[in-house]
Amino acid sequence: MTGWSAGAGHGSCRLRQPAGLAAAARGGRPPSASPLASPVRLQWPRVFLIAVALLLWGNEGWAAEPVRIVSVQLEQPVIGLYERCELTVQLAGDIINPYDPDELTLEATFQPTRGRPVTVSGFYYQPFEQVTTSRGARAIQPAGEPVWKVRFTPTRTGRWAYQLRLLAKGTAVEGPSGAVEVSPSTRPGFVRLDRATGLMRFDRGETFIPIGENLAWAPSSQLLETYDRWFEELSRQRANYIRVWLAPWSLRLETKETGVGRYDQLRAWQLDQLLERSDKAGLYWQLCLLSHGSFSRTHDPDWQNNPYNHDLGGMCRLPNEFVTDPRAKALFRRLLQYLVSRWGYSPQLATWELFNEADASDIRSEDFTPWIGEMSRLLRVIDVNRRPITVSFQRESGDAVWKLPTIDTVQLHVYDQRDFGETFSGPLLPQLEAEFRKPVMVGEFGWIGEFVRDVDPNGIHLHDGMWASLVGGSISSAMPWWWDNYIHPNHLEHHYRPLARFWRGEQLEEPLSRMTLTPSDADVLGCATGTSSQAYLWVKNRTHNVDQYLAYRCALAKQRLRAARQQPAGPSPSYPPRVVSDATVTLSGLKSNGRYRLEWWDTYRGRVMRTNVVTAERGQVMLKLPDLAFDVAAKLVRLHWWEHG
Questions:
Q1: By the 8 A CB rule, do 580 and 627 touch?
Q2: Which helix or strand (DSSP H or E) is residue 452 part of?
Q3: Which among 340, 331, 330, 319 has a CA at the least distance from the CA of 389?
Q4: Which CATH architecture has domain 1-40+62-187?
Q5: What is the pLDDT of residues 226-251, one digit of tens each?
Q6: Rounded distance between C-alpha atoms, residue 51 and residue 45, angstroms
Q7: Residue 351's beta-bridge partner residues?
Q8: What SS3 state is found at 609?
């Protein structure tokens, strides 16, 4: 058995546990089995020897020393609005499991000068640091002894007084108190779901329109460096939203090494770093907590590496027991509390996603729905910043889950469509929004086959899918998959900048409603959405698609082959096959008649091509399209009587 010293100067806090578990608590190698496993049959001689060992260890000081607060350090006495207030707390005494709230809970109540107090929980924290080895490589190593921390982000200026409270084994003790001064800042605040409009909005009132991609994981050997590169590329292109997984091979806190109920502190520190760095890059997160493979034995199977698996010391013999076994549910609730305590402070964390593609796992839908209801209700209670909560499915509609009052957005994963522009500009998105009366988003989309992606090196399907989804009824741009082996290797992140420029500064005070767009030419496809005073359009040339582009490349290759053989080359192929000219679209559904300022946008360069004034009558306006080679977007803004355009 081993002790652990966490104190400095005034006292020490000892973790009373087997050496393997102590190492696991710090992110090290595991014991052979978790203490939460089902009972193991032991022979009587072995039981006797273990009992003797425990008695001998107890003679060295088994009497537990009560846990107490030794010191509290406030990181900064004056912070800006929506900046992090952090307390570092030194504890002294004996602790068996620092992640068990039944054994130890540290709380801090923050009281503003006016308004209601806010209570947040503290958490166990092991500091790390990045160092350069003698060979010039980057490495991460512990930087001091573990401590406890409390993190809180104030939502108003002024003086916030705080009071610590320690609950150890049922005994509550008031701790030190203090105060932090909060000054005005330019930060926009937390991302909230505006239920009146179905849009996302910052605390300061600005509309937040998510535009970005999946960055689900990175190579564990260079995780921070890889994410730094992706963050820089996305920030340069004005993207603002990413979807990150707590993947078993990347950032999941409960692993085979830690066992259930204990968390990998190295990975937790890396999550700290990523959230802080995404703040500088202007990126907001959708954090996915569980993936389908961890609970599947057939589809992307990874059940064999899941610490909840009975074979690894967990309590679940089958994946479905994760959502039915009371012990498994209790331990996942504990994990949710740790996640909220450690990262709930961050405005960059915009959305919780409890489970990715639940229907691709071995969990039965009739057991999954009540589990999601229970866990989403808990998140709603413990997350003082009340982030939107979602979940995702691969093929099933998830109707029972979408109807839960604590699930805020309907999330789709859409793959292998021949034309994503046509799919997302069709009735799919508005129908789902109308059926469940909730915002809809496309959390993943793309082509699964690597060959298919290879024929689209310019990202035509990405471009069309993102533009059509935002104008077609999604709360965000559709988020591409294949970030690591398609988007960034081909430098296709440049597609985000024009879309971000188009939507930058748009203030939407009313719900966006789907409008009817009727083209005069059969080769024109489009969709429109808007409010009572503004409208947004996306219009595409149907002959500009991946199939036609592939045919063009083949024709070009044949021409070059004939030229190499000194054969007649024939006419040069052109792309697109047809440029649509002299076409119009009729927009119906405007709630106000009168004059509108019309802007036509180049969707590949992200700039206005031309501007003029049009007049709407009886809720309709006919618009003459620019010559349409690829696609264009448009904005209509109603003019007041005194405005000229």
A1: yes
A2: helix 450-454
A3: 340
A4: Sandwich (2.60)
A5: 999 999 999 999 999 999 999 999 99
A6: 10
A7: 286
A8: strand
Token readout for 205 is: 């009132």
Which pLDDT band, with edges at 50, 70 and 90, does 2 fall under?
Answer: very low
SS3 of 73-125: EECCCEEECCCCEEEEEEEEEEECCCCCCCCEEEEEEEEECCCCCEEEECEEE
449 compared with 426, residue with greater pLDDT: 426
> Alpha helices, DSSP H only, in 473-573?
496-503, 546-564
172 by DSSP, 3-state: which?
strand
What type of residue sits at position 139?
A
Across 125-138, average pLDDT:
88
Do 244 and 287 form a contact (C-beta atoms < 8 A)?
yes
Q: What does the pLDDT look like over 46-62, one tens digit per residue?
A: 444 444 444 444 444 45
What amino acid occupies position 72?
V
- Per domain, the residue ranges of the chain are 1-40+62-187, 208-508, 539-543+578-638
CB count in 10 Å sphere of residue 140: 16
- Structure token pair of residue 552: 């063009």
- In whole angstroms, what is the distance from residue 67 CA to residue 509 CA? 52
State the Cα–Cα distance between residues 98 and 87, nearest whole angstrom.
17
214: its two tokens = 């999946």
CA-closest candidate to residue 515, choices 583, 599, 587 = 587
Query: Are the beta carbons of 124 and 99 closer than 8 angstroms?
Result: yes
From residue 192, alpha-carbon distances to 42, 151, 278, 283, 343 in Å are 54, 20, 18, 15, 16
Specify the pTM. 0.90
Rounded CA gap, 500 and 470, in Å? 11
Q: Name the strand (E) or helix (H) holding 598.
A: strand 594-602
Of 234, 236, 241, 235, nearest in space to 211 by CA = 241
Give the 3-state DSSP-derived string for 500-520, with helices as H, strands as E and coil as C. Answer: HHHHCCCCCCCCCEEEEEEEC
Strand, coil or helix: 211 = coil
Contact partners, residue 134, CB within 8 Å, separation at least 6: none
Mapped onto helix, strand or coil, the DSSP state of residue 633 is strand
**Token pair 């099933």 in the structure block, residue:** 396
Secondary-structure breakdown of the chain: helix, strand, coil percentages, each rounded to the nearest 5: 30, 30, 40
Contact 347, 190 (CB under 8 A): yes
Residue pair 254/260 in contact by the 8 Å Cβ criterion: yes
CA-CA-CA-CA torsion sign (599, 602, 608, 611): negative
Determine the residue type at 213.
Answer: E
Instruction: Show the tokens assigned to 198.
Output: 């179905």
Local structure of 639: helix, strand or coil: coil
When pLDDT is averaged across residues 600-617 and rounded to a whole number, the result is 96
Residue 429's H or E segment, with its range, is helix 428-436
Contact between residue 413 and residue 392 where contact means Cβ atoms under 8 Å apart: yes
8 A C-beta contact, residue 130 and residue 224: yes
Ranges of beta strands (E only) in 295-390 are: 349-353, 389-390
C-alpha atoms less than 13 angstroms from C-alpha of 362 in its C-beta half-sphere: 19
Query: Sheet of 207-208: strands edge to edge?
Result: 191-194, 199-202, 207-208
Which structure tokens are listed for 418?
């021949």
CATH 3.20.20.80 fits 208-508, yes or no: yes
Strand pairing category for 191-194 and 147-152: unpaired
